[in-house]
Amino acid sequence: MAQVFLGLGSNIGNRVGNLDEAIEKLDSHENISVVRQSSIIETEPYGHVEQDKFMNMCIEINTNLSPVSLLDAVLDIEQQMGRVRIETWGPRNIDIDILLYEDLEIDLQDLQIPHGELQKRMFVLEPLAEIAPNFIHPVFKESIKTLKQRLEQSE
Fold first, then answer.
1. In terms of DSSP bridges, do strands 54-63 and 32-37 run parallel, antiparallel, or are they unpaired?
2. Is residue 87's pLDDT more than 70?
3. Which residues form a coiled coil (predicted)?
4. How far apart are CA 30 and CA 106, in angstroms?
5. Cβ atoms 62, 3 nearer than 8 A
6. What is the domain-level CATH number for residue 42?
7. SS3 of 67, please?
8. How many whole angstroms separate alpha carbon 84 and alpha carbon 87?
9. Is the pLDDT of residue 90 over 80?
10. How many independent structural domains does the chain possess?
11. Phi, psi at residue 26, to the nearest 5°?
12. Quick check: helix, strand or coil at residue 95?
């Protein structure tokens, strides 16, 4: 089973309920087991789109799905929950991002692991550092805790 970290966010409807539903759907998938989840934090939206604040969190899962198959499963869950992709960084009832998959580095058109923006986003690093502070980022070769501290110092 692979150790994977996912980022979850929601800023439409019952934001906390949407996160809970996504976790429930992930955990009920036959090839995914939710191991740990962070606290939920409320954050300002990222990007240049006028929209409501987000509820964000990170979870750790174990899976025997390949990264591409996991992406398919995640996109399927988003679709089941009614996610509609209209604009980049726009409002959404659920967003599930694959942040880290073991120590793999993958760069495909539709899938980048580690997530390419992870180190720039406090709304990802804060909850991720809560559940995986010592996980080493495979590209930067630094712990999540260190990446979070570096971002805090630069803000």
1. antiparallel
2. no
3. none
4. 24
5. yes
6. 3.30.70.560
7. helix
8. 9
9. no
10. 1
11. -60, -50
12. strand
